Amino acid sequence: MAKKVTAYAPASIGNVSLGFDLLGAALKPIDGHCLGDKVEVSSAEQFSLNVVGRFAHKLPADPTTNIAAHCFHMFSAKLKEKGIPVSDVAMVLHKNLPIGSGLGSSASSIVAALHSLNVFFDSPFSQHQMLLMMGELEGQISGSVHYDNVAPCFVGGLTLMNHHGDHIALKLPLFENWYWVVCYSGISVSTSVARDILPKQVSIADTIKFGQQLAVFVDACHRQDENLAAAMMQDVVAEPYRKSLLPNFDASREFVMQNGGLAFGISGSGPTVFAITNDAQHAEKIKDWLQQHYIQNDDGFSHICRIDAQGADASTIIA
Ligand SMILES: Nc1ncnc2c1ncn2[C@@H]1O[C@H](COP(=O)(O)OP(=O)(O)O)[C@@H](O)[C@H]1O
Ligand SMILES: N[C@@H](CCOP(=O)(O)O)C(=O)O
User: Fold this and answer.
1) Residue 200: is its pLDDT beyond 90?
2) In this structure, CATH architecture of domain 3-172+308-318
3) At residue 284, does pLDDT exceed 90?
4) Among 10, 44, 71, 279, which residue has the fewest nearby CB atoms (within 10 Å)?
5) Is the peptide bond before 60 cis (omega within 30 degrees of 0)?
6) What is the dihedral of CA 112, 15, 99, 194, to 10 degrees?
7) CATH code of the domain made up of 179-306
8) Is 12 in the pocket of ligand 1 (CB under 6 A)?
9) How confident is the model at residue 239 (pLDDT cuts 50, 70, 90)?
10) Which ligand is nearest to the CA of 189?
11) What order of strands is seen across the sheet that includes strand 89-94?
C-alpha cells in the first residue's frame, strides 16, 4: 500500500513591529485563499524533490539548494541518531509564497517539509524537537536562528518566543475582532541583507522602550485591551533602518492610520507591510488602497486575514 502525506504551513508576520525576533503571527486569508506552502511526501527508491507552484520559478533550479531538501537530510540524520531506519522519499514542494517577501516564505517551506516528514514517519519527534530543527534550518537561510516565523507557522496563533525550558513558543490571547491586512509589493528583500543593515548596538532609550512595549503588549493581550495593545505596536529596532528599502512606506502608514487602522508596520524584513483594523469596511478600503499604491509589479498581492490559530496541518492518504 502506498502512503502519501501532504502538509500545509501558513504565511506568517515576523516581529509584529514590537517584538523583533520574539513575536510572530500566523495568517489565514478570510476569502479562503491558500497563503502558504505545501509539501507532499511519499515512498521512493531514491530521494527526490520536485518544486511546483506560482513562485517555483523564483527558486534556484538546482533542488539540492532548496531548504526543503535540507529538511529531509537533517530529519534523516536525526532519525539515524535515534537508531530509527530511514527510507528515501519523493517530495513535492508547492511554492505558493514569494521568496524574500517578509511573509515567512522559507519558514513555510521548512515547516511544511518537516511536518510532512514527521507525520510520514509516524511522529518520531516531539513539537519541541521539531521547533529546534526548524529554527536551525531557518538560521541557515537568514544567517541567525530566529523562531518568529517558524513557531507561529508550526503551532499557529500569535506566539512569543521563550528560550527557557521546553516551550519555545508561548501562545498569546488573540483579539478575535482584528483584521490583519497584508500587502506584498512584489519586490524581493533578502532577510539576511535586511539583518545586516541593522546597527549592532541599541541605545538605552530604545532598549527601555522595546522592553516596555513588549511587556505592556502582553499584559494588554491578557486583559483584552485592544487600544493599548495596538498603541504598543511601534518598531524601534528595525523599521527606522529598513523602511528606506520600501517605496511608499510612510504614505501607506499615513493612509492606514487615517482610515481606521489601529497599527501599521513591516511584516518580517519586508517588503510586505501589515495593517490592523477591527472594522471589515476599513479592512477592504485599506486593502484596495495598498493594492493601488504599495504594489510595484504583477507579483504583488494583498489579502485580508485573521490569525491562523491552528498553524501547520497535515493529511494522510493510503491507497
Ligand atoms: N523553499 C524555499 N523557500 C524560500 N526560499 C528558499 C527555499 N529554498 C531555498 N531558499 C533560498 O532562501 C533564501 C530565502 O530568502 P529570505 O529573504 O530569507 O526569504 P523569506 O524572507 O521569504 O523567507 C533565498 O536565497 C532562496 O533562494
Ligand atoms: N525577525 C526576522 C523576521 C524575518 O522574516 P522574513 O519573513 O522576512 O523572513 C527579521 O526581522 O529579520
Assistant:
1) yes
2) 2-Layer Sandwich (3.30)
3) yes
4) 44
5) no
6) -140
7) 3.30.70.890
8) no
9) very high
10) 1
11) 48-52, 89-94, 36-43, 3-10, 313-318
Residue 156 has a CB neighbour count (10 Å cut-off) of: 22
Give yes or no for residue 1 having a pLDDT over 80: no
Secondary structure (3-state) at 306: strand
Q: Where in the chain is the domain with CATH 3.30.230.10?
A: 3-172+308-318
- Which mutation among 12, 15, 145, 190 tests ligand 2's pocket best, with the greatest number of atoms within 8 A of CB? 15
pLDDT-derived band at 86 (thresholds 50, 70, 90) equals confident
109 assigned to a ligand binding site: no
Q: Where in the chain is the domain with CATH 3.30.70.890?
A: 179-306
Averaged pLDDT score across all residues of the chain:
96
Residue 106 CA, ligand 1 centroid: distance in Å: 5
Instruction: Tell me: is residue 99 an annotated ligand-binding position.
Output: yes
Closest ligand 1 atom, residue 189 Cα = 17
Per-residue confidence (pLDDT) for residue 142, from 0 to 100 = 80
Q: How many residues does the chain have?
A: 319
Section 210-234 average pLDDT: 98
What's the predicted TM-score (pTM) here? 0.97
Q: Are strands 179-184 and 301-307 parallel, antiparallel or unpaired?
A: antiparallel
